[in-house]
Amino acid sequence: MPATTGQDYTTLMQHLHSSYSGDTIAAIATPLGQGGIGIVRISGPQAGTLARRLFRSSSRTFRDFRPRVLHYGMVTDAQGEPLDHVLAVFMPGPHTFTGEDVAEFHCHGGPAIVTAVLEAALACGARSADAGEFTKRAFLNGRMDLTQAEAVAEMIAAPVKGGIRLARAKLDGELGRRIAALRQRLEMVRMKLCVAVDFPEEDVECLSPQEFLDDVEHVRHSLQSLLRNYDRARCWREGVLVVLAGQVNAGKSSLMNALLGRTRAIVTDIPGTTRDFLEEQLSFNGLPVRLVDTAGLRESGDIVEQEGVRISRDLAAQADLVLLVVDARLGPGSAEKELVAAVGAERVLLVLNKFDLLDSPEWDERDEKDNRAGDTAAPLSGCAQVRVSAREGRGLDALVEAARAHILERMGGGEPAAGDVAPNLRQSMALRDAEEELRALREDIGSGVPYDILGVRLETACAMLSEITGETTPDDILNSIFSSFCIGK
User: Fold this and answer.
1) Is 61 annotated as a binding residue?
2) pTM (predicted TM-score)
3) Is residue 30 scored above 90 in pLDDT?
4) What is the CATH number of the domain that holds 67?
5) Is 18 annotated as a binding residue?
6) Binding residue per annotation — 273?
7) A single Gene Ontology molecular function, please (predicted)?
8) Residues 193 and 281 placed together within one structural domain of the fold
9) Distance between the two ends of the chain, CA-based, in angstroms?
């Protein structure tokens, strides 16, 4: 039961390096489309040679690229024909993103231009980069661990500032450092365990059961803390699902239009106008939201409407929050009560709409500030409630804030702060497996299981933590991770 050594990691890296030939790759590093700047990136041993062949400086004194300095001039095709005025830069490895020689052409951002520059690089011997290949080379060349590599994609995909903060902390290596520290602590326990097993006749006990248990529990509690961070951070990284539900003509579509600030859903006085669901992306004061308007809840002989109602109930069951829209003049009925019973009152916010149509709405500034519903409609048991007028656009700010607070309270946290660390789905699955292995190990220690058998669980937990940072991650997992990246990153 030997501890993992640096030699194991070196062997792994040598194996991974053999999976690519170290040739020179090129790709467009900016989104295709019209823009001010488009960047073509080249990485590999021939990056400098290709840059010198394709670039003509506008300076008469230019002899060669000064590392990490932008040079102005003309980029040409493989036959020397001018393509565009550009800024070109050459960055020698290993102190680059990929750890290799890197060259970039910053040209005008038209798709035809950047495509022509890329074709010129390919014609001169570069290979078109695979998805995520630049970042994969950075990982393989030791420029970052796997958690940092994944954070690159998370940074690009972050929908709001909260997601950016979480990705940046991982990109800075904070998660990798924490995982490495926990794994090192387990490795120290493994070393002591080896001594205890190999030299049982020694008078000095090198690892008492209590010391063993304390170390295991420390790591296990740290893993649990990271897993809680995953649950809290999911809403900032992936967004939340908010579903508008309620009976026909309650004003769901009007409310959706009012929240979006534009007409998205058709609104009529005819019951059952919305038969399918409509989905839009928006922000609730910085919280990314998928807002879905669904078909009205009612009994119908129309097969299409029946299917719409079924989908509505399914979406409500999946939602992080259901905005249950009710006509304030009528109050909630049996359909609303059934929905609340099905999804749980803790995931429902009762929205009393059309408050402006009441005979005596008594809508003064104080009530609008705290958005109290008063005795207008009997509340559903356990449901928080707000009141709005979708037609007049009143009460919307209070509704957004109430929905945001409701979601964050359920998910156990507020907006991420600088330095907060949260694993992604892959990392959390490995953390959960490691935590379960340590939980079983704790029980085995208490049951007096021999040390040599306990070492198997300890080794498994260490391997799971190593998989997170990429030290023992199988090739198929690595390929899956980097294939999800965009081309050019």
Assistant:
1) no
2) 0.74
3) yes
4) 3.30.1360.120
5) no
6) yes
7) GTP binding
8) no
9) 40
Residue 483 annotated as binding?
no
Q: How much is the pLDDT for 372?
A: 39
Residue 445 belongs to domain with CATH number: 1.20.120.430
Q: What is the pLDDT of residue 298?
A: 59
Asked whether residue 136 is marked as a ligand-binding residue, the answer is no
Here the CATH number for the domain that contains residue 405 is: 3.40.50.300
| 369 labeled binding residue | no
For residue 380, pLDDT over 50 is answered with yes
The gap from C-alpha 31 to its chain's centroid, in whole angstroms, comes to 20
User: For 12-26, 70-84, 145-159, 462-476, which range has the lowest pLDDT when averaged over its residues?
Assistant: 12-26
Is 272 assigned a ligand-binding role in the annotation?
yes
- Kindly state whether residues 132 and 217 are assigned to the same domain: no
Q: Is 293 annotated as a binding residue?
A: yes
Instruction: Tell whether 334 is in a known binding site.
Output: no
Q: How many independent structural domains does the chain possess?
A: 3
**pLDDT above 60 for 6:** no
Annotated binding residue 295: yes
- Range of 299's domain? 239-411
Give the pLDDT band (50/70/90) at residue 82.
very high
The annotation status of 145 as a binding-site residue, yes or no, is no
Query: Does residue 152 sit within a domain?
Result: no
Find out whether 354 is annotated in a ligand binding site.
Answer: no
Is residue 269 a known part of a binding site? yes
Residue 143 marked ligand-binding: yes
Pick the closest to residue 102 from 38, 172, 25, 32 (CA basis): 25
| Phi-psi group of 137: left, alpha or beta (phi > 0 → left; psi -120 to 50 → alpha; rest → beta) | alpha
Q: Is 489 annotated as a binding residue?
A: yes
| Residue 391 marked in a binding site | yes
Q: Which residues contact 97 (CB under 8 A, 6 or more apart)?
A: 43, 134, 135, 138, 143
Does residue 158 form part of some domain? no
Provide mean pLDDT across the span 236-249. Answer: 85
- Integer angstrom CA distances of residue 118 from 37, 67, 94, 204, 482: 14, 21, 23, 68, 21
Q: Report, in angstroms and rounded to the nearest whole number, the Rg of the chain calculated over CA atoms.
A: 30
Neighbours of 191 (CB within 10 A): 15
Range ranked top by mean pLDDT from 33-47, 195-209, 316-330, 400-414: 33-47
Judge whether 335 lies within some domain.
yes
